[in-house]
Every structure is written in C-alpha cells, then in structure tokens.
Amino acid sequence: MEQIDKKPRSGGTTHFGYQDVAVEDKTRLVRGVFESVAGKYDLMNDLMSFGVHRLWKRHFIAISNIHPGQRVLDLAGGTGDIAALMSKRVGSSGSVVLSDINEAMLAVGRQRMEDRGLVGNIEYSLANAEKLPFADGEFDAVTIAFGLRNVTDQPAALREMYRVLKPGGRLVIEEPDLNHKGVKLLALAEKMLLMRSHFYTPQKIWKMIASCGCSAKIENDGRYTAWVVAEK
Ligand SMILES: C[S@@+](CC[C@H](N)C(=O)[O-])C[C@H]1O[C@@H](n2cnc3c(N)ncnc32)[C@H](O)[C@@H]1O
Predict the structure, then answer these.
(1) Which mutation among 81, 100, 151 tests ligand 1's pocket best, with the greatest number of atoms within 8 A of CB?
(2) pLDDT digits (tens, 9 = 90+) for 118-139
(3) How far is the CA of 77 from the centre of ligand 1 (A)?
(4) How far apart are CA 95 and CA 21, in angstroms?
(5) In terms of DSSP H, where are the helices of the chain?
(6) Are 202 and 226 in contact (CB under 8 A)?
(7) 48-65 pLDDT tens trace
(8) pTM over cut 0.70
(9) From atom 4 of ligand 1, which residue's Cα is the shortest distance away?
(10) What domains can you pick out in the chain, each with its CATH number?
C-alpha cells in the first residue's frame, strides 16, 4: 500500500532517485537537475507530452477560477507557462508571482515573459515551496503544476500554500495521475533517471490537503492527468 512519507526530518534521509540522501542534500540535488535542463526544458516538455501539456495547463487555469484584479501565486512555476496564462486573466489591475527554487528556470521564465510583452503585472520570487516568503492570506489563488513531486517535504509545501491563501481562496495542484500504468512508468523513469521525483496518487495529495483543513476535490481527464482543487 502506498504510504505518505513521514515528514523528512533534518538530519534524516529521503528519496533521491534510487538512492537515500540526507534531507538537506535533496533540495540542492533537485535544484541541480533543473539547473542543467533549464535551457531545453520547454522543448523536452513538448516532446515528452506531444504538446498536450499545453491543453492540460489551459484546463488548469480554467478551474483555478482566477479573476481580473486578483493576486495569484504559481509555485515551482519553472519557465512560466502557467504564470503567462494567469497574467492575462488577472489583467493590469491584478498581479502574478512566478516562483521557483531554481534561478536558471526562473531566468528562462522571465525572458519568455518579456519576449511576449507580459510585463507590468508579474513579479518573480526565488523560493523553496516548503518555506514561502509571503504573508498569511496574501493570495486569492495558489497553484503548482507538475512541481509538487519534485519537492522534498510535500506536506510542508501544502501547509505553506494553505497559509498564504486568503480565506475563500483556491488552491490548484496538477500532477500526472499515478493510478495509470503509463504514469507509473513515467514515475519510475523520472525517479531513476531524470528529475528524481516522488509521485503520489491524487488521493494521497487530497489527504495531505484535507489535513490542512481545506475541503478538496479531485478531477481527472480519465487518462494521465489529475487536478486536486481545494478551497480555504
Ligand atoms: C517539472 S518542472 C514544472 C515547471 C512548470 N510548473 C511547468 O508546468 O512547466 C518542476 C519545477 O519545480 C521546481 N522545484 C523543485 N523543487 C522545488 C521546491 N522545493 N520549491 C519550489 N520549486 C521547486 C523546479 O525547479 C522546476 O522548475
């Protein structure tokens, strides 16, 4: 039976691909992995999903219920696909924070935004999702797409997402649906070779969120992707 990792404790070990590594080292190692792929991340994403990730991301934005004038946060936002869509939704009276732990990914994201003329309502934040540099209740929506599985202490990141969300705000998490065989293979490949990810089923993510006090529901496309949507 699938288990949620106990909170990785300082001084203890956690998964990194096929190895167990010190908790303190994993975040640094994950950062190194994305450092090395930042320049080719978008191409890799298109090739690995046959471009379908764009449709999943549009659906993600549709269910995030973002309105003009809102302040929203996209965590592990990488090269900014989600933040770009959000920027159009919140408009000039709103603001988007694109946040990632990796400077190289964030730099590619900022360049892409500027190239597309998306400036003025976007801020950038280099931050670990487990320890966010934002005030309680600062955001109308907090999102993380295809990033939770890369975070070392996922329950801590979910607690932080909940903390910085306004009462009535919406939390949206998008991940490949581990209940499907194809995704199990992807999880194995990512774990062993590429991103050193640690996947959970949407049901486990739902449980972790529910323990923060949110009411949450799971949507899926019946194939590869699931969205866990919660209200504070
Ligand atoms: C697979 S990419 C997803 C990027 C983007 N959300 C997308 O859908 O294209 C995962 C991202 O998570 C970031 N990441 C990994 N661990 C993180 C952490 N602890 N806090 C914040 N971001 C993290 C990586 O730097 C990387 O940019």
Answers:
(1) 100
(2) 999 999 999 999 999 999 999 9
(3) 6
(4) 38
(5) 23-37, 41-49, 53-64, 81-90, 103-115, 154-164, 181-192, 202-210
(6) yes
(7) 888 888 888 888 999 999
(8) yes
(9) 78
(10) 40-231 (3.40.50.150)
